[in-house]
Design brief:
The structure is a homodimer. Chain A has 10 helices and no strands. Chain A is mainly alpha-helical. Chain A has 2 domains: 45 residues, Arc Repressor Mutant, subunit A (Orthogonal Bundle); 126 residues, Tetracycline Repressor, domain 2. In chain A, helix 4 packs parallel to helix 7, helix 5 runs antiparallel to helix 9 and helix 7 packs across helix 8. The longest helix of chain A has 27 residues. The termini of chain A are far apart. The relative contact order of chain A is 0.10. Chains A, B: This is TetR/AcrR family transcriptional regulator. Chains A, B: Keywords: DNA-binding, Transcription, Transcription regulation.
């Protein structure tokens, strides 16, 4: 965790780099260490308070719950996955797939996403946070698809967010469903697959069906 | 839930259609109803016992935990997603994608998979069950890819289980991460994407890299 990231969306956040930001940094670092030590099941506000030195009442006031803390940590850490601009869509897809692989290569990151998905299953407010978090990331990442459409690499009716969802999907399937580590082969496969599928018209904007000649009978 | 499915893997199962099978059917039906009524968070052995009329000690003896019950239910219900054999891989992929969409079109099914993934995050034994459950399903579904390779529709070095993982991945992403309902457009997109990507060599067996001409620079 670095202070270079703009803290975003934390309740009470007003002065980046100020005391509020330092409190957040200490608390999120503590959450991250606790996740590494005991996973989500053993995570409590009290443990985060002890490790961070921040009073437990402050934690409840600013983050409401353990789930709120974990979601905020996810937002913070996602700034570590840069959005590439290599000049070609295949290059961008491959670079992003490699960043995602590096990110989830750490077991603690896999536990974090497991924790967030589990929390969302139990708590509708976490589900809302998760949906909006991934929505924002997809919209940002979609810019690389928009550039590709502008360059003529993809059909004009391509839906950027569908393309980016399709790039991410194999990683979450691997982590949450297949329950095996992500690796370089997965990154390569995901990038190759999305590039071929996008060119075949598999990710049309609403109202444009997938190209029939690509689907077959 | 129908009695037509072969009960599989339940501890103590010896006579399909016998008393043990009827017990399992009653218990799994109760779990399904409880999930629909209150979701996973409110699910307890006691509630399942009350609804099914099966003694709680029997539940603990045969299924060990709520997580064990939910995994067994998943196994039972997955028999409702038939594996197609239409004569072409695009036809098979589209038919299977539509079956998956119908399966997870029910909110209760989405809650079920959320529950299983959450349970796996907390309990390594559930994680093992989940991994082996999806491993078996992938191996079975992979037969449609093997037939396609035999028909010459796909490169010989195609990995069947990777293809089937790629077909499933967008559905689990939609449910667990994007947290929106699955729909016909997703089925169409998933089938179109996997067909295009598989032909481009995106799912090679270990030791065969993705086709370089499909990946670009």
């Amino acid at each position: 965790m670095t202070t270079a990231h703009q803290p975003q969306g934390a309740p009470g956040e007003t002065r980046p780099g100020g005391r509020t930001a330092r409190t957040r940094e200490a608390v999120l670092a503590a959450v991250f260490e606790e996740l590494g030590a005991g996973g989500f099941a053993g995570l409590t506000m009290e443990k985060v308070s002890q490790r961070s030195g921040i009073h437990v009442a402050t934690l409840y006031r600013r983050w409401r719950s353990i789930e709120g803390l974990v979601c905020d940590l996810l937002t913070e850490l996602s700034a570590d996955v840069p959005l590439p601009d290599t000049g070609t869509l295949p290059g961008d897809l491959r670079a992003l797939a490699r960043s995602i692989t590096a990110f989830y290569g750490e077991p603690r990151m896999r536990r974090l996403i497991e924790a967030v998905v589990s929390a969302a299953a139990r708590d509708p407010q976490v589900a809302t946070v998760l949906r909006s978090f991934f929505g924002e990331r997809l919209a940002l990442a979609g810019q690389m698809v928009e550039r590709a459409v502008a360059r003529g690499e993809l059909p004009a009716e391509t839906d950027p967010e569908q393309v980016m969802s399709a790039l991410g999907a194999p990683f979450y399937y691997r982590i949450l469903i297949a329950r095996r580590p992500v690796d370089a082969a997965l990154a390569e496969s995901a990038a190759t697959a999305v590039w071929a599928a996008a060119r075949a018209g598999a990710y049309p904007r609403e109202g444009h069906g997938p190209a029939d000649d690509a689907t077959g009978p």
